[in-house]
Amino acid sequence: MNTNTLKILLFALLAALCFSTTFILNRYISLEGGNWFWSAALRYIYMLFLLSLGFIIFKGYGYIKDLMIEFFNDFLFWSTAGSIGFGIFYALITYVANTSPAWVVATTWQFTILSSLVILSLFGQKISRSTWILVSIIFLSILMVNFSSIDKEELERQMFNVFLILVASFAYPLGNQLVWEKKSEIDTFAKVFLLSLGSIPFWIILSFFFEVGIPSQSQYISIFAVAIFSGIIATTLFLFARGKAKNATQIAIVDATQSTEVLFTIIFEIILLGIVIPNSLALVGILLVFISLFTLVFVDK
């Protein structure tokens, strides 16, 4: 087994564990009546605050000044990458959380595994046949999980939610790949800061199209937790793992680890929100996801 592959897999799995808090907390907020817009926008506002505080403490004010110079020198790039990879992606995920269980959203989101391969191909990366086959098995397994949760009485709404998540699944790897292609010497935390800052114009524009009101009291606390675990820790680990990838297959492996968010989300949702354990079809699909994911690691020599 390739040592670098195993290393990036472990970092990516840890990122997936932290990412799963997003689905749980967004669902919790929606059940409490919180507005989806603030669930999304507050995350990046908190991230900017926390990252700025960290930079000031560990690197000084001068470092933030340098990052701001970088941002405005390449404003179009960072605002585009941030709006796509952070803005469009997360706005759609939080919107869907209003009407769908967390584990269903997490499962459908795994379409990003295939979306990532499409994005990599569009950027001229070569994907091995074995990688395509295994990732396709992962996708078919995800379909099994979705079929297990279909509610015939709300099929139209569910299909619309699936469509929105599919759009999000392309936006996230596209934003990440734009950063990867840039080959910047900036460290991972700085990239997260610049992408978060780049998403701000998107949130401002989006606020004009919806009645967003003000955040609920529970949102301030819950989204602060999302900002730390998913926004900073998970995103940083994920981008770090992706940055260490040396070829398209390893990038695909990092992206494929997001499938494990399903298991983490189900466990947390059963414990914290009291949902019913998924049926046997869903559990078989989840098992196949894991088998295919770890097979990918051994295929990449």
Q: What's the domain count?
A: 1
End-to-end Cα distance:
6 Å
Give the structural class: mainly alpha
Helix segment tally:
13
What summary fits the major beta sheet? none
Which geometry do the CA atoms define?
Answer: globular
Number of extended strands: 0
Tell me the fraction of residues in β-strands, as a range: under 5%
Instruction: Give the H and E element order.
Output: HHHHHHHHHHHHH
Rg (CA only): 19 Å
In helices, the fraction of residues equals over 70%
Low-pLDDT residue intervals, each spanning 5 or more residues: none
Arithmetic mean of pLDDT: 84
Explain this structure.
The protein has 301 residues and is mainly alpha-helical. It has one domain.
